[in-house]
Structure formats: C-alpha cells, structure tokens
Amino acid sequence: EAGVTQFPSHSVIEKGQTVTLRCDPISGHDNLYWYRRVMGKEIKFLLHFVKESKQDESGMPNNRFLAERTGGTYSTLKVQPAELEDSGVYFCASSQDLDRALTSGRAPIGTDTQYFGPGTRLTVL
Amino acid sequence: AQTVTQSQPEMSVQEAETVTLSCTYDTSESDYYLFWYKQPPSRQMILVIRQEAYKQQNATENRFSVNFQKAAKSFSLKISDSQLGDAAMYFCAYRSSLYNQGGKLIFGQGTELSVKP
Question: Looking at the complex, does the CB of residue A95 fall below 8 Å from at least one CB of chain B?
Fold first, then answer.
C-alpha cells in the first residue's frame, strides 16, 4: 500500500511568487490534514478535509493560503503571494475513519491514526 | 486551548542504554489521545506509540513504552536498548476526543535524539 506522498519535496521561490503544494493521501482515507513547521518550532495544524469538504480551517494563517481537495482525493495548498514568514516544512497527513472514532467514542486501533507524508520544504527568499 | 510542551530540545543516549523523553500537556478535557511520533532524518514522520486517556495502563510497543500520569498531565516516552536507528526527532502530540475538534493533532516542539555508538 502506497503511503502519503507530497510534491515537491523542496521549493525555493521569491517573495511575492505563487507556490502550489500537492498531497496524495493513502487511498481510501477520507480525512486529510495539512500541518506546518516553521523555523524549528512546533508543528502547527492548518486545516482538515473530510473527503472534499473543509471540516476545520481554523489554523490557516491568512487569506494568502488556499487549500482544495478535488473530488475528495488529492489536495493542493496554494500560497499566493508568498511571504518570507511562510518558509517552513509543510506536512500532509491522512487517516481512514475519524467519524466513527468521534461519534462512537472509540475507534478500532489504527483507523484514526494519522499517516504523514515526507513534507515539502518551502523556502521563500 | 490545549498545549503540549517538550522541554528537552536535544537528548543523547549511548547505544543499548535507556533514555526517557519528557512531554507535558495542558487540557481541561478528561478524554483525549496522546501520541509520540518519530521523524528520522530526511524521512517521514511515523507513529511510535499512542495512549488513550481513559486507559490507566501505560502503552508499550516493543522497546518503546510510555509513563502516562494523567493527574500530572505528563506523558514521557522511554526507549529501552537504544539502537542507532532510533536517532530522530521525536514529537509528542495531543488529540481531543471531541467531535468539534475534528481530530487535529497538537504538537510539542520536538526533541532531537542522538544515539552514540
């Protein structure tokens, strides 16, 4: 089974340019999360998709960030225009079955585990 | 809001020895999940171990075990018989059990573990 993949692995852009990051979750995983680690600080949540719908986007820093999840499969995160403080590593994660975990209170072990991609290192100059 | 704190930015252990990584958290919730994730250099993050707050028994996974102290809001990771492959950044994470929190993870700052041969 293929894991979570992210593209590109590295991106170096000039301030003011646009960058689009892509995440392909594990097949069959309804839940997709974006996280970001900036300057060696803690990893912070950005947003959560359930299939194609945004469940929670409370972590998105501002309106320069736009996330989509076409047809509930892969997701893209676009930064436009990029600023210096956007530099960091962007992680994507997917999980199989969150709803059952939350509504029933207990999930079979593993179904709500978040599997992470390798991350995209974004450098804004 | 929940917070997770890892007070040890770096730790070092001799191969075959035991090391404990610290993690504390703050929450007003009574039911939640705690995780330790490991990110080896240039590789993706993987789940090491998880603990459900309602379980009193500490989770164990082979050489990895946790010391979960709910009242103290402490969740340390013990690695026994350390191996060179254990060298990685370790992240402690919290997840609410509440539906409106959506399953997002709240991470600590990470602890960089090096293993000396």
Answer: yes
Residue B98 with chain A: CB contacts under 8 Å: 102
CA distance A78 to chain B (A): 20
Q: How far is CA A20 from CA A12, A23, A54, A66, B87, in A?
A: 12, 10, 18, 9, 32
- What tokens does B80 get? 């026994």
Chain B contact for A36 (CB, 8 A cutoff): no
Q: Are strands A5-7 and A19-24 parallel, antiparallel or unpaired?
A: antiparallel
CA dist A121 and B16 (Å) reads: 33
pLDDT in tens, B54-92: 888 999 999 999 999 999 999 999 999 999 999 999 999
